[in-house]
Amino acid sequence: MANKVLMKGNEAIAEAAIIAGCRHYFGYPITPQTEIAAYMSKKMPKIGGTFLQAESEVAAINMVYGVASTGLRVMTSSSSPGISLKGEGLSYLAGADLPALVVNVQRGGPGLGGIQPSQSDYFQATKGGAHGDFHMLVIAPASVQEMAELTVKGFELADKYRMTTMILADGTLGQMMEPVSLDFDVKPMPEKPWAATGTKMQRKHNIINSLYLKPEELERTNFERFERYKTIEENEVMYEEYLMEDAEVCVTAFGIASRVAKNAIDEARKQGVKVGLIRPITLWPFPTKVFEKYADKVKGFISVELSMGQMIEDVRLAVNGKAPVTLCNRSGGMIPSPEQVLESILKVNNGGNK
Amino acid sequence: MSTTNYLFAGFGGQGILFSGKVLAYKGLMDGKNVSWLPSYGPEMRGGTANCSVIISDNPVGSPIVSKPDVLIAMNLPSLDLFENSVAPGGMIFVDSSLIERKVNRTDVKVFYIPATKLASDNKIAKLANMIIIGKVLKETNGFENEESVNNALKQVISAKHADMLEVNLNAMRLGRDY
Known about the structure:
The complex is a heterodimer of chains A (354) and B (178). Chain A has 354 residues and is α/β, with parallel strands linked by helices. Chain A has two domains: 5-235, Rossmann fold (3-Layer(aba) Sandwich), CATH 3.40.50; 239-349, 3-Layer(aba) Sandwich (Rossmann fold), CATH 3.40.50.920. Chain A is built from 13 helices and 14 strands. In chain A, helix 1 (9-19) packs parallel to helix 7 and helix 3 packs parallel to helix 5. Chain B has 178 residues and is α/β, with parallel strands linked by helices. Chain B has one domain: Pyruvate-ferredoxin Oxidoreductase, domain 3. Chain B contains six helices and six strands; from the N terminus they run βαβββαββαααα. Chain B has helices at residues 16-29, 76-82, 115-121, 128-139, 146-156, 164-177, and strands at 3-11, 33-38, 48-56, 70-73, 91-95, 109-113. A six-stranded mixed β-sheet of chain B has the order 2-3-1-4-5-6, sandwiched between helices. In chain B, helix 1 packs across helix 5 (146-156). The model of chain B has no long low-confidence stretch (mean pLDDT 92).
């Protein structure tokens, strides 16, 4: 344990980004993610990096676009209302096939909402997040260790597929401290022959652009991008199974909700209920196949969420009517209690939701 | 296989989050799984601040402590708010120089420590939190190994303030021996 330190989730993201080679951070403060910016403002000047507090979220995401165009690792972070403001930039990054890392430490909404933890930006994150045909890779950590590890992984995937990775966390994961080991391998950054780094009069210009006035051409870029998405759906799905081997009830939850769910599952197991958990780690691509695998085997699924029920739609699509899917939720900054989840488990186990 | 859920609560500025951090680091030094979760938001300004700390032999599930095994109440609003949430058989540590009333519960162990008064009597006015922590560690068998307490403190107190190490340790000893 000697190499472990206690860190807030937000700080772990920031330090991991630096370890991953990110030297450019642009952001605008907002609770509950401000520690990321604070950490970057302290560290970046000492290691020859750039920390810039932009005049707005819109400015910050466009600065990210600029640095991403040069092929360097770059990130921004915000919380729910701030991510909405970045929407335009997220779409432009997708249209220009630029790799970037964007962190959303979610808080309750809609509107200015509140500052307590939430998962109600699931739709926004996984269904595109802004105008146009596109996806972001969406990764949901559930511990401070994962906040760090998945940030590194997020940069690697962003570079590999030339797209935005969004780390979808929440206020609890951002604010809590846990032991974290920052001793991990970072793969070398791939070559980026497309980057706008100056031609030195030796090659043709690289043009970074998302404007295609000929619809045939725009359609072709979308077709190509979605071919890449197919590869991602085949190769990059991540999830955790917990006590699923003999499960008759399947709880599913991501991020902080999965930790509450585990408490409830452990308690239900003590009472003799065969219940397990599927925890999606990538929310896009969604781990559809693992749900298909269990759809015939369990009495029912319970989606535990800090929202009015958003991931549940993807769960239902995956389960495809083969078993009932029910919701166990709180909203607006509230967190379901293990007791509430346990009650849902017992209900489904007793056939109460058929 | 044991898990202990701690809830620290008091006014913002009493070092609630700091003392929770010391305890979490102590757990880490002892090779346990730990989590530390602060309340955050506008209520911290002058109102109540609290933090959840979990120390466990198992991986920590939810970091939110809703039924503490150990409650540390550093002001009356905190005791009022959390007294009834303490698990039966649990412990409540009360700063009796700031909280005049007694604990109503009869199914928990209660420790009254005039921490704020002890701190000012010993000219360490800001360290009431550490005095209480000293007592908490003693009653939860965490003070048997003073070295790990010292190591935990070293992790929380930055090198810049290394001179505060001994002062904090002394405050903890005061609580332990009370």
